[in-house]
Specification:
The model has no long low-confidence stretch (mean pLDDT 93). The longest helix has 24 residues, at 3-26. With 49 residues, this protein is mainly alpha-helical. It has one domain. It is 90% helix and 0% strand. The radius of gyration is 12 Å and the shape is elongated. The termini are close together. Helix 1 runs antiparallel to helix 2.
Amino acid sequence: MGADDTVKNRSQQVKGKAKEVTGKATKNKKLEYSGKKDMAAGEIKERTS
């Protein structure tokens, strides 16, 4: 796993967290769940790489 892959995976996690927090603040469940999905995908990619 290269450093660029790590950065991509971490940025996906951060983006997901931002979406989740924004979804909670605006009571937008779709955005909140989308953020959780992005966070999980980034974590999985990071662990399997």
